[in-house]
Amino acid sequence: MTDEYFMQQALREAKLALEEGEVPIGAVVVVQNQIIGRGHNQVERLNDCTAHAEMIALTAAFNNLGSKYLVDATLYVSLEPCVMCAGALYWSKIGRIVYAAADDKNGYRSVTGQQSPFHPKTKVELGPYGEESLNLMRSFFVQRRK
Question: Which residues bind Zn(2+) (predicted)?
């Protein structure tokens, strides 16, 4: 299994969000090449501003493992995490974060600059399929503005 495969799974979740009228962001949490948590934005559906893809995927992963820490896990997410999700990821002690596209407006870097908000041992990488992720975002906002 590769980063490309797991990012495709995150994009699949983002497409589910788009179909539901949500901002199209998707995430999966992986341990030993197994997806242990999935999520896509459900803010509108749940009427909950914290129902971001990462938060839902993290909760599923915690429940799956029966643990509050994810030191051996990788999060694949279609868009750079916001500062709220970055805080949750910090506390999870997740081992690795791979995101497809930067979010210059609402991503964690827009608030923290170059200082990482993640656990010191967490590795953060820009991953594959950035253009695909941005295309989903563009199509969502084009639909909303009609």
Answer: 52, 82, 85
Gap between the terminal Cα atoms of the chain: 40
Please report, in range form, the residues annotated as the binding site for Zn(2+).
52, 82, 85
Specify the pTM.
0.96
Q: Cα–Cα distances in Å, from 25 out to 50, 67, 68, 138?
A: 13, 25, 23, 12
Catalytic residues: 54
d(CA 95, CA 141): 32
pLDDT digits (tens, 9 = 90+) for 17-57: 999 999 999 999 999 999 999 999 999 999 999 999 999 99
Residue 146, pLDDT above cutoff 80: no
Domain edges within the chain? 3-137
Dihedral Cα 3, 127, 55, 58, nearest 10 deg:
30
Indicate the CATH number of 3-137 among 3.40.50.2000, 3.40.50.620, 3.40.640.10, 3.40.140.10.
3.40.140.10
Contacts of 30 (CB under 8 A, 6+ apart): 1, 6, 36, 73, 74, 75, 76
Residue set of the binding site: 52, 82, 85
